[in-house]
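Reply to dn_fold:

You asked what the input looked like. This is it:
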Amino acid sequence: MVSDSDTLVDLRNQLQGDSLKKQLSAVHELLALGQEGIEALTATLVGRKDEPPTILDGKIFQVLYATEQENLRHSLAQHWPQGRMPTPSEQGVDYGPLQSLLIQQDFEEADRMTLAKLCELAGPTAVKRKWVYFTEVEQFPVEDLRTIDRLWLIYSEGKFGFSVQRRLWLSLGQNWDKFWPRIAWKDDNIWTRYPGGFIWDLSAPDGHLPLSNQLRGVRMMAALLAHPAWSEEG
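and this is what came back:
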């Protein structure tokens, strides 16, 4: 018979493994063990503090935050005042609010915030009009697009982000007619209605979010996916 302590050890070992699927499964199983599991998750997260944040770190941070234990939230805020991921910006844009929404898994509001931040990158005129011209995308700093992308990646179990969308788009031979249905932006040649038609949780297909100004059509998306941020090293 396996004791609770053996289970705890096994799950902690699973967190150290190479399989993301098993790591994420261990997070949920540890959470289900109650306070002991929460303490194990906290210890794992703090033990990885000096390492670059990964999808595992993002998931642990999310589930610990969601426990709504004030002492735990206070501890997280002490270690990481802005969230688990650093958010560098070449233009001094504050991505803290976006990180906060993603930690809370408020993907719909995070999507709106992403568009607001893209407008901020494009300049005051874009902020005023509340959308981005495709011609403005190529001027976006590499660092900022990567920051936005990494925030979406680490807080979505690797399902969402521009880089995920680009990978799918390339895998489909850059064929937009195949790409839109693959990420559930189109069905039977009919565009998905915003916002009610979209899926604002992790049951959505890979690449479903962020919408990145989806209503403006293919040229905006093409400019985003062709940006140097995805082809440069780093």
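The mean pLDDT is 93.
Hope that clears it up.
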